[in-house]
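Check out one such.
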Amino acid sequence: MSAEIISDAARTLQASYAALPTPRDMAALHADSKKAETRGYYDPTEDERLREVYASYLGMRVAIWQTIQSLKPRFRRYKKGQSLTESELRAFGIAFCGAEIIVRTGEYLIGLARERDIVWKKLDEAELRYGLKRKSFTRLYRQLTSNFTMRRFYQARDYFDANRDAIMAAMNTEGLMPVADILTSLNLPSASRGDHLQRYRRFVNFSLRRRSLSAGRNTMFALFEATGSDIAELKIPFVKSAGDPKRVTPDIINVLKTNLQPGDVFITRHDDAMSNLFLPGFWPHGALYIGPPESRRERGIAEVSDGYKHSAAEDINILEAKKDGVLLRPIEETLQVDAFVVLRPKLSESQISAALSQGLSHAGKLYDFIFNFATSDRLVCTEVIYRAFHGIGPINFSLSTKAGRKCLSAEDFLNQAIGQGWFEPLMLYGVEGSRWTDAVRVKTALAKTYEANF
């Protein structure tokens, strides 16, 4: 198993765990639900607060499901009595930790909705901003309380309990210790199957038949095969057939490379929006082009590392926050998308160098599933750009309140960057089919894709 895959998976779980609802969050939601039940409806503030927790959970599920899928291809099927390798034990431990997070957080929401019909009805409403259809919560409830799904979860849990010492020993490394700590807090040895069953009997009247693991059964991934496709269908507004290639091809990237300068900003989109479900809008995602190593050296920008990749590597030219964290990446990874726009800051060389240095100072941080711009220990994609450029020259971004928190969405960035004249939109690809938009029409064509105010 690739060490990089294991590291990325561990970082994603750390960030996902940090996004779990806190007791204070749940207390606020309980108080809101009481008020809403009394008056007969949710007011806008209460509505957004509930939606924030729900959207965060759905985004977290997508991220964890993708993480499990990244581990699956190299997870060897085992035979009865045959030991797993250390790498496979680590993969199992990470995957099971993800399953515990999904089940535990789903339990919070289901418990809240069972108390009051008004909560259930609210969560079952269609929400176009997040691509959610009617009755999405009902389907989620059925997933987490079905005999079929939960039987597979407990099979995986049986394997973990039987091999706990070996799995935890394999995870006793610097990069995996945070995940091991999370797993310990979620799945204490004293937390028996009966404890879990007692909680789920509150949700639905079902019984689980205890079964021993059969030879060759890949229990952890059986759980996700049973629910993975439904997770995707629940939360992803598919507009293209599965397996269809991205519109941005290697040839397009090669043409683009010759026209880029350090400090350029990418705003991108996927047609199916899977990885950016919880970042609503036509344009949901952003990344910072830092340029090739020789260009940064000429500018006097110090080399940095994100923990296992170094900015001096020849293929590193992007700083981007995704579910695995704020990492240094090749442009080929960032542009596995269907459309993008490139913006160039109207700043001096020294100002751009200062912005790049500020941005690179955040390399290696975890992703922030909560989208809290008030803190800087974890960052989302647009926060990397915000913290790189804010305060440089005339640039002074204004944050807006979304779901109860101050943030800067990708489309807010576009509106302010272009509207205030801080950035110039240079290149646009993929919004008029699989082709470039003529240079003189970039701004006009971009404005037609969303609610632009420039």
